[in-house]
Design goal:
By secondary structure, the chain is an alpha+beta fold. The chain has four helices and 13 strands. The N terminus is likely disordered.
Length: 223
Amino acid sequence: MKKLFLLSFLIIFSACKQAEEKKEEPVKELTVAEKIANAHGYENWDNVKTFAFTFGGTLEDPNSGRSWVWNPKTNDIKLTRNDEVLEYNRSNMDSVDLKADRGFINDKFWALIPFQLVWDEGTTISEPEKAISPVKQEEFNKLIITYSSEGGYTPGDAYDIYFDEDYIIREWSFRRGNAPEPTISNTFENYSDYNGIKVAQDHKRSASDRNLLIRNIKVELEE
């Protein structure tokens, strides 16, 4: 009887100790970049089979702009522009593919900048601070992402990211070569949710009526 009691005590003690140790494991604090990415659906990205979108063009002309279909797991790319189609894989590109891929990287960056904050390597991301946005002149949180001077298609560039208290991006400024003044500034508006991925469809430029569109967005999930 004593042996049975002792065995039961040891089992309970061991279980309590393991539970206590597990409870004491520190919880990893998310970075601001990770919080921004998650606010736009980054936690759902692993389930994405294809991400399709059209960059630029007009609503009146369905064939305008550059249309992309991207399989992020295989890196297969399909570009449709002016009724011409180009398909390639980013792991094996010739000179024609490389030229198209510059467009893909640019367009994907506009569509998925919240995720690029955690995807891209060789970057420096500042601590957030309060700042007045360049387009709407509203107070938001601001962080700066600066790219390394080596590698990539546009080395050394910087982006000022303006986001609200819910970590949703509302504006940005692009500064070519980390110049002190913005090269362009745009809003991020008209967000829609596509199978858990939030994308801003409208991007209005400062001092202009121009609206750069991200449209025809389709997110296909794995079965």
